[in-house]
Amino acid sequence: MYRILLPLAAVALLAGCAKSARNDSLTATLSAYNSAVRWDGMQSSQQFVDPEVLKAHPLTDFDMQRYQQLRVTDYDDGSGPAPLGDDEVQQTVKISFVNIHTQSERSIVVRQTWRYDDKTKHWWLESGMPDLGHN
Asked: Could you tell me how far CA 23 lies from the centroid of its own chain?
């Protein structure tokens, strides 16, 4: 009986450790993304977007120029991420920003989808860069 229970307990413990490491990775990734958006500007946040998403929807020069004219003033991630499955979470954030040319302030709500890549042990932003629109 112990020969069966011991390996099962070990598998359960390893699965729990893997899930804990994945959750820690998610927390670190979301915090780093928040900092990138808030303090480094939208351009630096594109490193968090899934490379396949960027390949399918590359940012244009116009997009980059638009991001450069905006300064993020607040990034509110509300209650944090909600699981959509084992390897996917969704988070709703409110981003406030000022157009540096017009000094007009605006806020948008963005629904982010994050996916965990088990091969690279990395969380990727699947929903792409937020569309901040014209301000």
From this structure: 13
Look at the chain and report how many structural domains it folds into. 1
Q: How far apart are CA 17 and CA 88, in angstroms?
A: 18
Whole-number Å distance between alpha carbons of 103 and 97 = 9
Task: Convert the pLDDT of each residue in 42-100 to its tens digit.
Answer: 888 999 999 999 999 998 999 999 999 999 999 999 888 999 998 999 999 999 999 99
Fill in the DSSP letter of residue 28.
H
Output DSSP code: residue 57.
Answer: S
User: Which one, of 23, 72, 69, lies nearest residue 45 by Cα?
Assistant: 72
135 occurs within a structural domain: no
What CA–CA distance (Å, rounded) separates 45 from 48? 6
Asked, for residue 132, whether it belongs to a domain, the answer is no
- CATH number of the domain at 46, please: 3.10.450.100
* Sequence-ordered strand ranges (E) for the chain: 70-76, 82-85, 88-99, 105-117, 122-125
CB contact set of 117 (below 8 Å; sequence gap of 6+): 123, 124
